[in-house]
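Retro notes, structure queue

What went well: the backlog is down to a handful. What didn't: a couple of records were mislabeled last round, so from now on we paste the full input next to the output in the thread. Example, using F-box domain-containing protein from Arabidopsis arenosa:
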Amino acid sequence: MQPQPHISPTTATAAISAALESQRVRKNRGSYNCGRCGQPKKGHVCLLTAPPDIPTTPIASEPVSCISAAASSSRSTVLSLTTAPSSRQSFTHLRRALSFDDIDARNSLDESDLDAASADLDLHLDTDIVQPGRFHAVGLWEVLKRLPPSSLLMAARVCKGWRETSRKMWKAAEELRIRVPERAQIGYIGSLLQKCPRLIRLSLKIESDFDATTLACIAFSCPNLEVLEITTSGAAVNRISGDELGRFVANKRGLTSLKMEGCSNLGGFSLSSSSLSTLWLSDLHSLSKMIFNCPNLTEISLEFSRQEDDSTDLVTMVDGLGRTCTRLQNIHIASLKLSHTVVLALTAVNFRYLRMLSLVLGIDITDASVAAISSSYTNLELLDLSGSSITDTGLGMICDVLPDTLSKLLVALCPNITSSGIQFATAQLPLLELMDCGMTVSDPNSDDPTIVENPSPHKAPGYNQKMFIKHKRLKKLSLWGCSSLDALFLNCPELMDLNLNLCSNLHPESLVLQCPKLQLVYASGCQDLLTGAIRKQVSENFAAGENHMPRKRLADASKRIQALPSLYEETREDDNYAGKRRKLEKEVCTIIH
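Corresponding output:
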């Protein structure tokens, strides 16, 4: 027998490690041995194979539960899930990432550019566990449904179960909000929309120029679309023409709401739709024609560019609306071309269902226009005449006709209105909940409302004005830019929102707020002492509304009243008590300055 050479343990260990390393290097593909028992796969039938009646993946084809969108839609889709009680399935049938078909999740654009959530969905399962050792089905759905689209695309790469769940979530989505960055292409939008065949509501915030190709992509990818909103950001230009917009509206027979910004290149349009009920178009300019053949239209908002060379004929537009859109309830028109003639055309149409009327930036709208509106529309709930030339007399007409219906009155940027008119309006309109009087009681010597000047001892006549408002239902009051206001008294128990921006002449000693429910105050451009006075008065009003003398009924039916806080005033310097008081104290009102 030949003597065996001596091999040290270190050398043996190194040799074994080298052999194993070389074996791992040579293995370019998957394992050729059974993952359960370790035997070679060729001609091998593993005794540990799972029974055929147990599914190998948490996603199956039997409908168990229903997913409903958490938004206002009543539609629902079916998600198929089954469970497997076997504890032996927790580590079986694992897939490699390279075997996943994740082509749809790849694109030339960084997925982080998607900044909004897709659809908010709810999941209800009849079972608790999909498979022991795997992610809880309800928990998985609850987590994935809160992810933005970019994270949802990344989650689909984790495993097959997550990919299938993500795919079903895309299919179940009914609302999608996307920000499209400047370097995106139209194919990118299409690839996302094709994932959501049940999409009903779509909101796009586009940061680059776009044209009718975007509308064609939306029309092809979203056959069930009902609500479309397109907003522009930055220097983005909307190149859609009026004819292209008209074809899109005519082809989308289920479209009920259309909102679009940057419509400066329409030139003119003709919209025909039996389903359209809401239409918002902004940045309009010099339209040659405007034809609305929408019998079910209930809300329209048309905002024109603030350019003097606008040649749009508003009288003809109003006449057309009266002939074809008789069910209008809300009308908003913002244009420098608004005049008394336009108001007369609007009153001649006599929309029977009109409840909200907004005519903004019409410098030629006067008290005569208010008289015409008051005589034709006696059931208005909202009236916005901001930027007009009406006076306190016009406010009196409004109060005489609409005391039982009007709840929102906006008369900002009306320089002929005084504090007396505002006080009279609040006293005569008992249902009033919102009132905007911005830049009405302003300094006549100041042309720029953004400039805050120090109060001068020599003020122009009418500069010092006082306002006393007492109202039981008023919730929002805006007095921004009222630089002539030097005293303010508010007794409004329901007031929650108060805007005092640029009220530079308002002093702390002349401010009285009896508003225990006040939650938000805007005080930008005001004196620092005024901000402190607001915070102090709000805190006092909140403390006054609390019950400082709680009573506890004892077993003998008698009541015991606790001592007043003033009796233990001297103990407040104690550290423990001070710490407890700090924990109990909370910010009852937010002041933005």
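Agreed that this is the format going forward. Reviewer comment attached to the example: The longest strand covers residues 59-69.
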